[in-house]
Amino acid sequence: MRNLGFDQREQTPEPALAAIPVPKPAPSTAAAVAGRTVAVLGPTLRFKGELSADEDFVLQGRIEGSINHTQSVTIGADGVVVGNIHARVVTIDGSVEGDLHGIESVIVHATGRVNGNIFAPRVGIVDGALFNGRIDMGARQASAAEPSAAKGEPVGVPMSAEETERMLGSKR
Length: 172
Fold this sequence. Notes:
This protein is an alpha/beta fold. About 20% of the residues lie in helices and about 35% in strands.
């Protein structure tokens, strides 16, 4: 191994440190290290009923019932949900039969399969994902526009070319 730092000489690891294997942290461990708690439910889990919690959640098993979370929910590639999901951020890599409600966003990756409606201000469906349902992005946009209207600022009015240049020029 070469260190391409300042002195360009070969570096050899100390024998005591080289003998200790350092495992790479799992994604859930990395999130926990960053100060966030992540609950991981493995592929052998089978659950019926309503599930709710306040930490990030990764499902690799099967749930029949609704999921209500205040943080992010990730349905892993082996995860299956038959029911509705309510969370701040919903990420689908597995299979869901039910509606997805994201306070911030819903993302369906290429391995994801969703048979249900999506309600979120930001929605991403990656090429290769299977989706059958309706997408509603309007509810959150209307509530986000209300504070501007209350201040007397025009809502939904396009800017002129001069206004755009002035705004962009001040940020350069």
